Amino acid sequence: MNRLVLNKVVLVLSTLSAFIGIGFLFWILITLAYKGMAGLSFSLFTKDLVEGGIRNLLVGQFTMALMATAIAVPLGVMAGIYLREYGEESKMTSVIRNLSDVMTSAPSIVIGVFVFALLVEPFGTFNGWAGVVALAIMMVPIIIGTTDNMLALVPKELREAGIALGGSKKQVILQIVLKAAKVGVTTGILLSFARIIGETAPLLFTSANNQFFSMDLTDQFPSLTVSIYNLATYPDEASRQLAWSAAFVLTAIVLFINLVGRYVTRHKQ
Question: Is pTM, for the whole model, over 0.90?
Answer without folding.
Answer: no
